[in-house]
Structures are given as C-alpha cells and as structure tokens.
Specification:
Blueprint: E1 11-16, H1 24-35, E2 40-45, H2 53-61, E3 71-76, E4 87-92, E5 95-100, H3 106-111, E6 114-119, H4 136-149, E7 159-161, E8 175-176, E9 180-188, E10 194-199, E11 208-212, E12 215-218, E13 231-235, E14 240-245, H5 250-254, E15 261-266
Parallel strand pairs: 1-2, 1-3, 3-5
Antiparallel strand pairs: 4-5, 4-6, 6-7, 8-9, 9-10, 9-15, 10-14, 11-12, 11-15, 13-14
Helix pairs in contact: 1-4
C-alpha cells in the first residue's frame, strides 16, 4: 500500500477543459487554499478541448510520472456532471487520482494499475452537502483533493469500490502485423501533430515508414530531418509515434482526426 512521506510538501496537479477566460480554475484553487494554503498546485493544462475525455486521458497519462510519489492528480473533464456517473478517488503506486468515473484515468491506470478505489460518498469532505449540479470540480473534487493531499486517510473519503468496475475509455489497441504495426491517432496536440497509439519501442533500431491518408511518410528522428513544410513521422517526447510537418500543422493539412487508422511498416 502507498505511504505518504511525512515531510513531503502537499502537491496537487490540476487538469481541466475550463480554459483561462472564466474564473472556474481560480475558484477551485481558492477552495483548496481554504482547506490547506500550504498545498502546492501545478496546472497541467486547462486547455483540453471541451468535453474531450480522450484528450484529457492522454494528457494525464503522459504527465503523472514526472511528479513525486504521493501527488494528488485532480482531473475534471466531466460532460456527465450532475448525472449518476460516480465521483471517485483512486490510489495507485504514484499517488492518487480524483475526478469523475468516465474513463479519464484509464490511461494512467493502464500503465500503473489501481491499488484501491472509492466512490466519494463522505459528505464531510465536500465543500457542501448540496453540491452544484454543474460544478463538482468546486464542490466535490477540489475539497476532496485538498483533504487527501493534507493527510486524510484515503478510505475515509467514501465507499470502497472494485477498481475493475472503473470506466475504461476504449481508444483501441495497436496490433502487430506481418509487416509492422496497425494503430490509430489518439491525440492531436497544440502544434497539430498527430500522435498515434503505437509505442516508439516498435521502431527502435529499425528503418520504418508510416502509411496514412494515402501517403507514405518517412520515419525519422527529428523534425529537421526533412525540409520546411514536409511531412515526417517520428517518436515524440511522449514516447508515441506521431505524424508531423516541419514548421507546419499536420492536422489541418492532412485532415486526419482521432481514431483514424495508420500503419507503421518496418523495413
């Protein structure tokens, strides 16, 4: 079981689709500070496309490993807010996850499985026993996260549930073929790079190319391996194979979207 280091400064990461125009993120930080002003808060991003759980899943999956053990990761992309979807906290080897049970944590848990999970039913750790139907980030998740980071025992937060019952977001798995690997686009970043669900380990030490959108795209190591404006395939810093354009936007130019198929061919 996970044990929190006594001398560790409380740390919470925040991820949402709230943007920075409105006060929602600031309010959540205020709620956390009311409970424990010593908590350090790191904003992963608040620019997740609205209601895009898959993008949130990918972003959190590729960020959690860079934080100290014991960090509370609070993620709110919640199109089902106010419905019967569960509000949950999950304990895993690196710390804790707090947010809606809608698949947002399934990427993290595919790499570091849940140790335990609870449904957040203990109203003593909510901001109010009558939370808003549209802002559980303020009324449930922020106060629960703050209490958890401050040392409240995990199992006091609510009713224990089977981790196997947590919602999983199915983006499909890549599959090996006789010539390489078939996968799909799982994320599109700010630069328009098309990030696949194919790990870069498949092409390590190999010569390879990608087939997508009727194109054959050379596999290289850096963006500068091709001329400005040319298409390239490479392994990004996140460890996944991606399609990019040197100093351009692959998403807008190729018109490929999430879930669309691509194939890595090994030569």
């Amino acid at each position: 079981m996970f044990k929190k280091q006594i001398d560790q400064q409380p740390l919470i990461t925040l991820l949402s689709d709230f943007g920075d125009r409105d006060v929602y993120v600031g309010i959540m930080k205020g709620v956390i500070a009311q409970i424990n002003p010593r908590v350090t808060i790191v904003d992963l991003t608040h620019q997740i496309p609205p209601q895009n759980i898959a993008a949130a899943r990918f972003s959190l999956m590729n960020a959690y490993a860079y934080f100290p053990v014991g960090t509370v990761h609070l993620a709110v992309v919640d199109p089902g807010v106010g419905s019967k979807r569960r509000a949950i906290a999950v304990e895993f080897a690196q710390g804790f996850l707090v947010g809606p049970d809608n698949g947002i944590f399934s990427g993290v848990l595919s790499q570091s499985p849940a140790i335990a999970a609870v449904e957040l039913t203990n109203l003593n750790y909510w901001r109010t026993p009558q939370p808003s139907k549209t802002f559980h980030g303020r009324d449930i998740f922020a106060p629960v996260g703050a209490n958890l980071a401050s040392g409240v025992p995990f199992k006091q937060l609510g009713q224990e549930i089977d981790p196997a019952s947590l919602v999983k977001l199915d983006i499909g798995n890549c599959k090996q073929t006789t010539t390489g690997v078939v996968g799909c686009i799982q994320y599109i970043d700010h630069f328009g790079n098309l990030v696949s669900n194919i790990p870069g380990s498949y092409v390590q030490g190999r010569t390879w190319y990608v087939e997508a959108a009727g194109l054959t795209i050379l596999g290289c190591e850096t963006y500068s391996d091709v001329k400005l404006g040319e298409i390239i395939a490479l392994v990004g810093s996140h460890g996944w194979i991606e399609i990019a354009i040197n100093s351009g936007n692959a998403h807008s130019q190729l018109q490929l979207d999430c879930q669309e198929t691509l194939q890595v061919v090994l030569t």
